[in-house]
Each structure stands twice: as structure tokens, then as C-alpha cells.
Amino acid sequence: MENLSYYEILEVSRDADKATIKKAYRKMAKLYHPDRNPGDNEAEHKFKLCNEAYQVLSDDQQRSVYDRYGKEGLKGGMGGGGGFGGAGFDDLGSIFEEMFGGFGGGRGRRQRTDGDKYPLDLGVEMSISFQEAVFGCEKEVHFSYKKSCTSCKGTGAKDGSVTTCSQCGGKGQVYMRQGFMTFSQTCPVCHGEGTVIKDKCGECRGNGFVTVDETVTIKVPAGIDSENRLRVSGKGNKGKSGQRGDLYVTFYVEPDPHFVRRGNDVYLEVPVFFTQAALGETISIPSLTGEIELELDEGTKDKQQYRFRGEGIADVHGHGKGDLIAQVTLTYPKRLSDEQRALLEQLQESFGIESKPHESVFESAFDKVKSWFK
């Protein structure tokens, strides 16, 4: 993946606009994010490459330099300062909040602290039933979190012994000059760490952390919906300092065979026989809390909707309840007996001209078509 261009990494064309690039980055970042791929070094590496590509392609100045000179033209002599520009980081932060934001409090996710090789906050996903989402429940969350390796003190090196990288002198960046311009890039030896490991720690295999399994019980509030997020304080990854981040649980609600949710409203498809619709019968239908009576209008039409105020889902933030919308689907007999056919024909004749609306509608059209052939 390192040999791919930034456009290839994000799987966009060279003439892609900013909106397309941003959408592609979000897709790739979700796919390779370390929280969704715990212990997968390859996914973490690809995530870093996606970040690097987006930081460049989302900034007009850096993108222009990259298009002309490639990666060698970046990070050093363009616009002052080493590394990537501030606009890219601000945008990345907003995208990060979009990816993991939602229900669960206003503060953002904590990033890694100095010396930690991973972010302290941790994200997991959980599927719940439609009923659990509507009424709330308690659920056990089984997850694994990262903890700084005590044997190597989080360095990844045997006995915690690391040496300064001779290639970059501990800076994590190497520099080169071309004419009047200076370029920098991540040190290929230490990969930006500034230090190198001679012997890997046997306990953590050089990762600097170990994984620990844990189970917590959470209270899922009534009204929660797919993509909503719940924060569990102090149950994330644990850093070198002993500080522990937060666990973020993102929910996905399983569909129900009868009720369809749209926000806090619930839709219910109600099959109604054509005679019931014509007569305007009163029928019993299910709601989230039991049975309710649906009084059909005489001559109810197919797809006609009836709204029951306050019979929907409670808002997860406590702002009232949604509605139940019952939508009629007319059904007709699949076959008729001789007696039923005779009765229907007799009924149709009793309506007279009203039973044949097409005749009055098309009468003038028939005359016009006949005139075409005179």
C-alpha cells in the first residue's frame, strides 16, 4: 500500500473534488480503524496511510505540490513548518467526531498520551433487538482493551531498553535538500518513533501493550437507535501512566417483522380486505403497548394512512414520543366461487353507472378515435 499514490490509497480519481475525497476517507478510516481491528498491525498501518493521504489531498496547497512533485515535494519547504498543515488536522478531528459521534455526551474521544502507542478511548459495536431498543434494557458487553506492558514499560523492548535512532537522531523525521528547498519524511528506520528496539519484549512481542478481556454491564436507555453511541466512563484502553480512557458502544438495532422505525415514529402495514375498506369497519391492530382500535373510513383507499399520536417510540433524550402510523394495504380475493361472483355482479349492477366510471371518462375519447378513421 505504501507504493500506491494517495489517490489510489483512498480509491479516488485524480480529479476528485473535496467532498468525494472526504467521503472516501471516512469509508477507509472506518474500515481500518484500530478500535475495530484490535491487535491487527496491518490494519493500523493502513489507517495511518489513509490519514496521511487525506491530510494532503484535503489541503489545496499540499495537493497542488503533491500533484507536481509527488511525496518528495511535501513536508518541509512548503508553507513553513515541518509536517502537515493545521487545516488538515482540524478537518480530521471533525471527521473523527462524525465517525464516532452521536449519543453519549458532548466531550470528544481522548487521543493517546505521550509515549502511548494507542489511543486511550475504545469503541465496540453491539446489536440489540427492536424491543430492547424501544423499551431499554441491560446488556453485557464483552470486549478486549489494551494495557501498557509492565515488563517493557510500554516500550516494546526487552527490559525497556531502547536506543536513539541513528538515522534520524531521535527526531522521527529525515530531511533532504533539493536546490533551495528542504523536504522531510517519516524516518524509514524507526517509522517516526525516534527510537529503535534491539531486542523485542517477549511478553508483548514488541507491541508495547498486552490485551485484557473484560465484561461490563450497561443500561441501554429506551428509544436508542442504530448509530447511537453510549459512553462507559473509565473502561477504555489503559496507558503508561495508569490513566484509562472510555469505552464507546455503538448500537445497531435489528429490524422487526411488523414495525418499521423512522426516527421516533413507527410505521405498521395493515392488510385490509376490500369489503372492510368499502364498509369502513373498525379493526384491532397491534401497537408498541398492546392493541388499539383502527376506525376505517368508508371507502378507505390503498396506502391510506392513520396516525396515532404518542404511540411511537420515546425520544432517547427525553423529548416526548413519536407516533404510530398505520398504512392500509388493500387485499382482494384470489378466487371467487360461483355464488360469490353472482353476488358481486348483483352488487355492481345495483350501483348503476357509478360502477362503470370508465365509460363516462372515455366517452369523448372513443368518439375522437372513431373520427380518425372516417
Characterize the structure shown.
The chain has 374 residues and is an alpha+beta fold. Mean pLDDT is 83; it is low at 77-109. The termini are far apart. Helices cover 27% and strands 26% of the residues. It has 9 helices and 15 strands. Helix 2 (18-32) runs antiparallel to helix 3 and helix 3 crosses helix 5 (86-100).
Describe this structure in a few short sentences.
The chain is α+β, with helices and mostly antiparallel strands and about 375 residues long. The chain is built from 9 helices and 15 strands.
Index terms:
Helix Hairpins; 26% strand; 374 residues; HSP40/DNAj peptide-binding domain; alpha+beta
- Estimated radius of gyration: 32 Å
Subunit organisation of the chains = single chain
Instruction: Count all strands and give the number.
Output: 15
CATH superfamily of the largest domain, please?
Answer: DnaJ domain
* Biggest sheet features: 4 strands, mixed
Number of helices, where a helix is a run of at least 4 consecutive DSSP H or I residues: 9
CATH hierarchy class name of the largest domain: Mainly Alpha
